[in-house]
């Protein structure tokens, strides 16, 4: 082999590590999220898992999922989630999860929090983001088009602020960081993927883990990692939920077809830990619990926050394993459990049934 010829063996190893080798008999891609979550759990001192509580929660969750006939189709039944099965929907979901972070407000009056009016309804939280995207498209603003994001003469900061305008004086949290994410993603899609989210997805060869790895390798704004005990740990919340949303929207077909979808873990945010604590699965040290109950902010990347996220991922994995142990034929993975817990927690919040607040962290990661 001459110096100018590529080392095919090395290239093959690199493709395998990213999961972009078309031969699925080769080593599968690994996001390393679950492994890192187990490490965090094994070394946590402020967050612990209650074994009996986790087993009981698994039985309760599966029973409720059966009772409600909870399935992947529930995703599309949400009014605001996109219904079409085309490339435009892929772009919609990409933007949706690019900006899917940090919706909580410090204002104790929910009527004064950031909210979006759409078709006569007021939406808050995550749904305010989706409503704002729909509203912009109906106003003929091509906000889901990646090439538009890098055209700063048309897609000005002022226009992006207009897209995410609120019905209240409170702005959407971290608006400048959201603008930065949009610009960065547009530039990288243009440079590395011919400006196309579909091209990015095709490069993953129907591998969920490969798509996560491609996103975190190419897009710094998606690379959700932290340091814990001098070790880098991966959470990758928004990359994983992007894969899950594609899978759910397209019913596991077309752009949502992934042969290793079960490689995706729970999405480490602030709602699922809240639900897991309410179910008796997670226990907190007194200082951490006092911090959460007093609504004091927890810094992004600090030990408390990393323990909350890592232990939640591992807890959902143990719940999944327990459901499968009790019901060997159950078709359930971490994605469905996460979706179910999130929907259930939001319902409890709306009904005023919270037993503990969610932890408060300002971050682009969730």
Description of the structure:
There is one protein chain. Helix content is 51%, strand content 5%. It has 366 residues and is mainly alpha-helical. The chain is globular, with a radius of gyration of 21 Å. It starts with 7 loop residues before the first helix and ends in a 16-residue tail after the last helix. The relative contact order is 0.17. Mean pLDDT is 93; it is low at 22-26.
Instruction: Using the CA coordinates, give the radius of gyration.
Output: 21 Å
The share of residues in extended strands comes to 5-15%
Order of helices and strands: HHEHHHEEHHHHHHEEHHEHHH
Largest sheet: 2 strands, antiparallel
What is the topology?
Elements (H helix, E strand, L loop, with lengths): L7 H11 L14 H10 L4 E3 L1 H17 L6 H4 L9 H12 L17 E3 L2 E3 L1 H14 L7 H4 L7 H7 L11 H18 L4 H7 L4 H11 L6 E4 L2 E4 L2 H13 L21 H8 L3 E3 L1 H8 L9 H24 L7 H17 L16
Antiparallel strand pairs: 1-6, 2-3, 4-5
Short description:
It is built from 16 helices and six strands. It is mainly alpha-helical and 366 residues long. It is globular, with a radius of gyration of 21 Å.
């Amino acid at each position: 082999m001459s110096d100018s010829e590529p080392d095919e063996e090395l290239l093959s190893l690199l493709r395998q590590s990213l999961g972009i080798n078309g031969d699925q008999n080769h080593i599968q891609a690994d996001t390393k999220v679950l492994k890192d979550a187990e490490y965090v759990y094994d070394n946590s001192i402020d967050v612990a898992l209650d074994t009996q509580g986790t087993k009981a929660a698994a039985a309760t969750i599966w029973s409720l999922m059966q009772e409600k006939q909870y399935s992947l189709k529930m995703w599309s039944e949400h009014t605001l989630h996109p219904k079409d099965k085309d490339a435009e929907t892929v772009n919609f979901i990409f933007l949706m999860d690019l900006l899917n972070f940090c919706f909580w407000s410090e204002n104790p009056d929910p009527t004064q929090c950031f909210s979006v009016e759409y078709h006569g309804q007021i939406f808050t939280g995550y749904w305010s983001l989706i409503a704002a995207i729909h509203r912009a498209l109906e106003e003929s603003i091509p906000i889901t088009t990646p090439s538009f994001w890098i055209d700063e003469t048309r897609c000005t900061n002022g226009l992006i602020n207009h897209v995410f305008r609120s019905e209240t004086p409170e702005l959407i949290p971290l608006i400048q960081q959201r603008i930065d994410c949009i610009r960065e993603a547009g530039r990288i899609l243009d440079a590395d993927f011919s400006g196309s989210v579909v091209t990015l997805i095709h490069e993953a060869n129907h591998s969920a883990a490969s798509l996560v790895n491609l996103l975190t390798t190419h897009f710094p704004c998606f690379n959700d990692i932290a340091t814990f005990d001098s070790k880098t740990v991966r959470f990758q919340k928004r990359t994983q939920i992007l894969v899950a949303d594609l899978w759910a929207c397209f019913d596991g077909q077309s752009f949502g077809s992934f042969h290793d979808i079960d490689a995706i873990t729970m999405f480490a945010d602030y709602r699922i830990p809240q639900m897991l604590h309410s179910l008796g699965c997670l226990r907190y040290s007194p200082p951490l619990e006092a911090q959460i109950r007093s609504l004091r902010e927890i810094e992004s990347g600090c030990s408390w926050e990393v323990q909350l996220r890592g232990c939640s991922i591992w807890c959902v994995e143990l719940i999944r394993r327990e459901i499968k142990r009790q019901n060997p034929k159950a078709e359930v993975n971490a994605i469905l459990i996460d979706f179910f817990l999130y929907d259930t927690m939001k319902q409890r919040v709306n009904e005023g049934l919270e037993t503990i607040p969610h932890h408060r962290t300002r971050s682009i990661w969730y």
